[in-house]
Design a protein that fits this description.
Layout (H helix, E strand, L loop, with lengths): L7 E5 L10 E9 L2 E4 L6 H14 L8 E5 L8 E9 L8 H13 L6 E5 L5 H14 L24 E5 L8 H23 L7 H12 L5 E5 L1 H7 L2 H7 L7 E7 L7 E12 L8 H4 L7 H16 L4 E11 L10 E4 L5 E4 L6 H14 L4 E6 L4 H6 L4 E5 L1 H14 L3 E3 L17 E2 L7 H10 L4 E2 L2 E2 L2 E5 L5 E2 L10 E2 L4 H19 L1
Parallel strand pairs: 1-7, 2-5, 2-6, 6-7, 10-11, 10-14, 13-17, 14-20, 15-16
Antiparallel strand pairs: 2-3, 4-5, 8-9, 9-11, 12-13, 15-20, 18-19, 21-22
Helix pairs in contact: 2-3, 3-4, 4-9, 7-10, 9-14, 12-14
The structure holds ligand BES, manganese (II) ion and zinc ion.
The site of zinc ion has 5 residues, from strand 10.
């Protein structure tokens, strides 16, 4: 059972002393003249004294810098925490993303503190909600596998952050409560995605992932259908079966359906859910395999996005397809040069068993298309080439112009980095197979785009028109192999949930506007 420990999130507009929080967090920034204290609720006198001493305290105001000082008597809190926000421009408010990162960075570095009052400059409801999101995402940790005797597990008596109060004039606004609740739903979705991705493949495999989907949907108006290997065989899901057949742990396809009465639009999400990618017979070298538990991140994002949509009661019909398989080498594994028949009948020559993601996605894209959704979005840790093109923190988005640009805009609003990439027509012929409809590998330069061109073949049509579609490649950004930063921990990041949710909200808003 996947658990998520949650922060109690509230807001106050005045009476610093009354909040009763152990720590008061205020922001610092970098200006051309040195470190500065950002807008804060301290008295002018205390603020000036503190501001003057910043250089001697060694405070620079850089992002991710956190310093603890004794609390000032006038604040009523025991500790004063200074969190850096990076470059500060006089008179310009911090961006929502800077607020998220700063709040996350502070919360991440508050070991041993149970309650914090965060007084970053957040004047509006949206800004206060950004602080809440950052704090709730920053409070994440994954400690499930530390034993009682190994010495790393937190002591049962250990103090950890459970309460965050946001100091903001927007606390007076009637819409703030709903915004904080949305922030909590969103952060929970991100944090549970992280936990699913962090789960080792010894613990998370297709069947247990399917069970996690059932557990998370419990009590929500989401219908969960799990296709086991017999059903997959019967219905012709050759892509998922082919990838899964080298493993002792059989594959699954999970279909999630949320269909509220007041629905305005029908969207389908497809997620790559390879619970471990060894490469199969086209075996990966050892170091490249080490992080391959991450390869189900797309499916975890889809699951948590559908759950968040249901929790928020958004007026959209959504289906979520989780393509779950373990890619393993064995005597029953598919061989390079095998031909498989994907759902709907297209044949694929499998020239490299390590290009498995596109095979499982092919089945689900075809199946999702049959239901005639208004758009299909897929999300996958699909290619190492994504990192060559865009690096470790920027995800790629490809597809039809409209959906692709809508995803990019949603990502910008949500604070996730996505960048549009083309799908050059000439790449299609590189996927030609001598003996089947298509091969699973083609041009390797620009391999992220080649993979997208492959996937496009499996997106269906309604009345002769291709269903609007976008493909999100999160191979690098899904997993942070470096140090923690902002609200992003080490290891699984949960990237994608916020963008997909923002996309759905944007679609709803656009329809509302067009209708009214
Ligand atoms: N899961 C990998 C892609 C990946 C690599 C994700 C590194 C995250 C980090 C995918 O299944 C894969 O192995 N892709 C191959 C495709 C190639 C054989 C065409 C790759 O990128 O090397
Ligand atoms: Mn692979
Ligand atoms: Zn893979």
């Amino acid at each position: 059972m996947i658990k998520s420990s949650e922060l109690n999130l509230t807001a106050v507009a005045k009476d610093l002393k009354k909040s009763g929080c152990e720590a008061l967090v205020i922001g610092t920034g970098q200006s051309p003249d040195g470190p500065v204290l950002l807008d804060n609720p301290l008295s002018a006198k205390a603020a000036r004294a503190l501001s003057d001493s910043l250089p001697l305290l060694g405070v620079t105001g850089a992002a991710d810098e956190v310093r603890r000082l004794p609390g000032l008597p006038e604040t009523g809190s025991e500790v004063l925490v200074l969190v850096g926000t990076g470059r500060a421009v006089q008179g310009r408010p911090l961006s929502e993303e800077t607020l998220r990162r700063s709040a996350g960075s502070a919360v991440r570095q508050l070991d041993g503190i149970e309650s914090a009052l965060i007084a970053l400059p957040a004047a509006t409801v949206a800004e206060a909600a950004a602080v809440a999101e950052g704090a709730a995402m920053g409070a994440y940790s994954y400690t499930e596998h530390y034993s009682a005797v190994g010495g790393k597990a937190p002591r049962p008596s250990a103090r950890s952050l459970s309460k965050v109060t946001i100091f903001t004039p927007a606390a007076q606004d009637r819409t703030l409560r709903a915004a904080l609740d949305r922030a909590a739903v969103l952060a929970r979705g991100v944090n549970i995605t992280r936990t699913l991705v962090n789960q080792p493949p010894s613990h998370l495999y297709p069947e247990s992932f399917a069970q996690a989907a059932r557990d998370l949907a419990k009590g929500l108006p989401i219908k969960v259908t799990v296709f086991d290997e017999k059903k997959l065989e019967k219905d012709g899901y050759g892509g998922i079966l082919g990838v899964g057949k080298g493993s002792d742990r059989p594959p699954r396809l999970v279909k999630l359906e949320y269909a509220p009465a007041k629905s305005k639009v029908n969207l389908a999400f497809v997620g790559k859910g390879i619970t471990f990618d060894s490469g199969g017979l086209s075996l990966k070298p050892g170091p490249g395999m080490q992080t391959m538990k991450l390869d189900m991140a797309g499916a975890a994002v889809v699951l948590n996005t559908v759950v968040a949509i249901a929790e928020l009661g958004l007026p959209v019909t959504v289906s979520g397809w989780l393509c779950l398989a373990e890619n393993m080498p064995s005597g029953t594994a598919q061989r390079p040069s095998d031909v498989m028949t994907t759902y709907g009948g297209r044949t694929v020559e499998v020239l490299n068993t390590d290009a498995e993601g596109r095979l499982v996605m092919a089945d689900a894209l075809a199946a999702a298309s049959e239901e005639g959704p208004d758009a299909i979005i897929d999300i996958a840790t699909l290619t190492g080439a994504q990192m060559v093109a865009l690096g470790k923190r920027v995800s790629g988005v490809m597809g039809d112009d409209g959906v692709r640009d809508a995803i990019k805009a949603a990502a910008d609003r949500a604070g996730e980095q996505f960048w549009p990439m083309p799908m050059p027509e000439e790449l299609r012929s590189s996927l030609d197979s001598q003996i089947a409809d298509i091969a699973n590998i083609g041009e390797k330069f620009g391999g992220m785009m080649t993979a997208a061109v492959f996937l496009r073949e499996f997106v269906g049509e309604i009345n002769g028109e291709k269903i609007p579609w976008a493909h999100l490649d999160i191979a690098g950004p899904a997993f942070n192999e470096g140090g923690a930063h902002g609200y992003t921990p080490k290891a699984a990041t949960g990237v994608g949930v916020r963008t997909l949710l923002a996309y759905v909200e944007d679609v709803v808003r656009r329809l509302d506007r067009d209708a009214g």
